[in-house]
Amino acid sequence: MSRLGIAWRVAALALAFAVLGPPHWIALRLLGRRATLAPILFHRVFLWLFGVRVTQSGTPPAPGEAALVLANHVSWLDIIAVGSLRPLSFVAKSEIAGWPLIGVLAGLQRTIYIDRQRRGATASVSTAMGHRLAEGELVVLFAEGTTGDGTRLLPFRSSLVGAARAALQAEAGRGRVRLQPLAIAYPRRNGLPVTRAERAEIAWYGDMELVPHLATFVQGGPIDVHVVWGAPIPFEATTDRKVATAAAEAEVRAALRGAGTGAGTAPAPDARPAAPEIGLQGPEIAPV
């Protein structure tokens, strides 16, 4: 991609933010959690501009159904890909709130922050997540606790899965909460299977600087992201969160193994359109 091509895409993305951002900020204060359309549109504009195609398979939660989504984490692009599919919010480290521009975008997405240096942060964040779930929202937790190199899945952490129990406590009549395993894979680039060596160009992990990684991303060409909604795990008052977390990890691991062999990108009979509840499906997002 030429410098001119990058420049006009960045300008178009800035224009999209200028058009969508201020009305969304106002809508958040007037409508609260019901203000959901602008983030989806902004993510989709990004995907279209930079040649990212998102496909999905499996059975996601029904519109309005609460779920704690437990996903693997490979790159900053995970957030844009998953955020383009439907209304949801993320859990992120508190440092992101202070990052230029990214912190603003995260706030408009109603991100729940956790200060990993503060004792007792897990309990307060679990409570906040539980209230979101009790209100029927989707909350995405990258359960590895960090990004990986794209070649292996790190163990899922169970501490914040306690938010499911907090949701049950916040809504006395609720008998269970849906834990939703979600696998994010990057199977193809420029129409060809991604090699093991190329995964490091997609993954953002360790001490990588964001700006150089963004430059490598835009120069690399079109990329496919495949999202697999795994079999849901019912979480009840008596459910052991560690056992439930391990089951979600196993589901994601199996889905990634399938995506690595091409099975994860094969047509699935139960696939859903990207965002049926808002009636939008651009060329950059498609069911499998």
* Poorly predicted runs: 261-288
Determine the structural class based on helices, strands and strand pairing: alpha/beta
How far apart are the first and last residues' alpha carbons, in Å?
27 Å
Number of distinct helices: 9
Write a brief structural summary.
The chain has 288 residues and is of the alpha/beta class. Helix content is 40%, strand content 19%.
Give the SSE map.
Layout: H1 3-31, H2 37-49, E1 52-58, E2 67-71, H3 77-83, E3 89-93, H4 102-108, E4 112-114, H5 121-134, E5 138-142, H6 163-170, E6 176-189, E7 192-193, H7 196-202, H8 210-219, E8 223-229, E9 233-236, H9 241-260, E10 285-287
Parallel strand pairs: 1-8, 1-10, 2-5, 2-6, 3-4, 3-5
Antiparallel strand pairs: 6-7, 6-8, 6-9
Task: Describe the structure in your own words.
This protein has 288 residues and is an alpha/beta fold. It has one domain (3-287): Glycerol-3-phosphate (1)-acyltransferase (3-Layer(aba) Sandwich). The protein has 9 helices and 10 strands. The protein has helices at residues 3-31, 37-49, 77-83, 102-108, 121-134, 163-170, 196-202, 210-219, 241-260; strands spanning 52-58, 67-71, 89-93, 112-114, 138-142, 176-189, 192-193, 223-229, 233-236, 285-287. Strands 1, 2, 3, 4, 5, 6, 7, 8, 9 and 10 form a 10-stranded mixed β-sheet that branches. Helix 4 links the parallel strand 3 (89-93) and strand 4. Helix 1 runs antiparallel to helix 2 and helix 5 (121-134) crosses helix 6 (163-170). The longest helix is centred in the N-terminal third of the chain and has 29 residues, at 3-31. It is globular, with a radius of gyration of 18 Å. The two termini are 27 Å apart.
